[in-house]
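[Backbone geometry]
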Amino acid sequence: MKHNDRTAPAVPLDPALEQLVRELIGPVADKWTMVALEVLEQEGRLRFTRLGELMGGISQKMLTKTLRQMEADGLVERTVYAVVPPKVDYELTALGRSLGAAFCGVWEWAEANRAAIGAARAAFAARTQRA
C-alpha cells in the first residue's frame, strides 16, 4: 500500500504484488462477491440454488460468474456429486474465510460512522439541490 503520510517514508511497492492487488480488488469488491462471502460465512456449505436464494436478487448467470471467479481466486471450493440430477455444493476455503474477516473491518467502520456518513450525504444533497 502506498503511504501518503508525510511523516512515514514511502514504502517501495513490489510491482507483482501491486498487480495482484489490482486484479483482486475488482472482483472482490464486487457487490455479489461480498454478498456470497457473507452468506457462505454465515451458512457454511450450500448448494448453488440455495446460495442464490439466500443472496437475493442475483441471476443464475451472475451467480455462476461470481462463483467461478471466486473459485479461480481460491476463495470457494466447488464440490460436484455424481448423481442425477447433478448436485453441486460451494463452501468457503480458508482463504475465503480470511478475506471475509478482513472485510469485517469495513462493516465495523460503516457501523461506527453511519451517522457521520448520513450527515455528509444530507449536506451534499442540500448543496447540490440549490445549485
User: Anything to note?
Assistant: The mean pLDDT is 85. Helices lie at 15-29, 31-43, 48-55, 60-72, 94-130. The CA atoms of residues 25 and 53 lie 25 Å apart. The longest helix spans residues 94-130.
